[in-house]
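Recall from the previous lesson that a structure prediction takes nothing but the amino acid sequence as input. Here we apply that procedure to Prolyl oligopeptidase from Caulobacter henricii. The sequence below is the only information supplied.
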Amino acid sequence: MTLLRTCSAGALALTLLSHGTALAQDSDPHLALEAVESPDSLAWVNRENAKTLPVLSGDPRFAGLQAEALTILSARDRIAAPNFIGTSVFNFWQDATHVRGIWRRTTLASYKTVSPVWETVLDLDALAKAEGKNWIWKGADCRPKTHDRCLINLSNGGKDAVEVREFDLTTRTFVEGGFRLPEGKQNVEWLDADTLILTRDWGPGTTTDSGYGMVIKTLKRGQALSDAVEVFRGQKSDVSARPNVLRDAAGNRVVLIDRATDFFHTERNVWTDGKVVPLAIPQRAGIAGLLNGRLIVELNEDGLGAKAGSIIAVTPDAGLATSLIFAPSSVQAVDQVTVTDRTVVAAIYDNVRGGVFTFKPAGATWTKSTLPGLPNASVSLGSHSDEGDQIFYSVEGFTTPTQLKLADAVSGASETVKALSAQFEGGNLEVEQKVATSKDGTKVPYFLIHPKGHKHDGSNPTLLHAYGGFNLSKLPVYDPLIGKLWLEKGGSYAVANIRGGGEFGPAWHEAALKANRQRAFDDYYAVAEDMIAKKITSPRHLGAYGRSNGGLLMGVALTQRPDLWNAVVVESPLLDMIRYTVLPAGASWIGEYGDPAIPAERAWIEAYSPYQNLKPGVKYPLAYITTSTKDDRVHPGHARKFAARLDDLKVDNLYFENTDGGHANGADPKSNARRWALHYTYLSRQLMDH
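The prediction returns the following tokens.
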């Protein structure tokens, strides 16, 4: 259970296309379903929900699964994820009593005890009731050094778009006449105690094709939005422009102006003395922080004398003096990097097994040390103190409950301050790492979690999960929901580390970009085929699950290899890859998938786009397709149109659309418990019933 980591037109048409052909590339009979909240669209959603809910919620297993999920999601003995603000520890907490949640604080000494004494700072349930809004917490950004004022991000229904309000931590009230920014997709930073630097929708001509702000302005206390002063203007074809204000313990401040030209390439500039000056660092790089006046940079391409995947330190000037902090081997990958007052801390994986390392400057070199962890585990960096070198980090494994540790990154001293109690019976489970061979000969590792001594007779109900995109890794995390709702019931669970992810560094991701996307899909099939060949499971008992980009993977798995599965959970998916760039926020992902407006790129996108590749006469497994009306990252039209196309073809499917929750698809513990109960009821029906 990872604690600390933090996508109308016309009348509704239900036209049946001619037999013998796939969906014509320029024909879209379900375009009207893209109108998110039109009466016709919502009527269609209600009809689909009315068909699906009785089937799944009427199953005798549903109530028990929902109760178990709610117990886990609202348990009071789960670890309260800590966040340092000043010398205090803050936490956002949801349970059965606090459905929307409370933002609360305590002292570090109290937090480390078995029963911390918490003070409620903001009650979201009370705020939502008082204002008649479905407020969902989206975090807070507090003023540096003084820590007395914060910018609170509130989402109505779970959307990425937020309203921003200034909040006083001393009085625990919103600041009368303070900063207040209306709803929008926005990035806001404190420039000083009375000035913000931000990007948002300022009006016509100020947002990109992706729907994000491209104009950066400064806003002083008491100043109207219309009077904000422009600092930088990007281009409409960009993904976004955003500010990034970095500070270090030595008193240095660097204001970066980032212009994301696509999802992975960012042109960086330094704003100094009222001027925007280009900074010639590689465009495929992440900035982790500032240490002794130097930028700490994670490279995702070769540059500045270091290879892709390395961590380097760079002076933020024309000279770009660099020093190498860490260079990975071929099986290593940097997953997270953060900066304390005197150190760089990194979560680094070796063959998909994590460790936490510190790097301290020692003249022209860096001294590497290791913080205590666990074997065969996942690691996650958490909050670090605003002043000093204390840092929280967690370690966990598929069957090893999460341990939260607090370390001094300079001395290396570490203590376990919290340990999650076992949320499911894991003593009879075995974790193995296996390797499949993909179509092009690439070795693809995968984890398999199953009951000890299970027979290899093809009868094991097995759920195969993967993501395969955006340089994101699937790691060995402790997930009580999978454990309780699936593994405890006799199911097996596999996680495939397919290309497109970041498990082996930037090259592993780039291997499945754009024209090479099929490699990620082939890797996924290779893992499924490996388990079938070894009789770990069989197509009758094998299910597939993925969401977001993983939902695209599911749509492709359903259309390209329907023979491999008896269940496919397609959650919050991208499915119409011909129109994805015109649906918010699809244009931002052209760097990952390519641009269907370019004929050559459209050709290879069209070859796999699930919506266009559903065909009559094919025996498809019963799919469960689910999304959220409030998802303003991956448009719900993808899932809606895919289900409608299956209906056209008279292919049975189950469709459910949650009316709240945003892209995370779970606005509160109760709705999230229902979500997971629906998932596992469906999987149990398809894979466990004979």
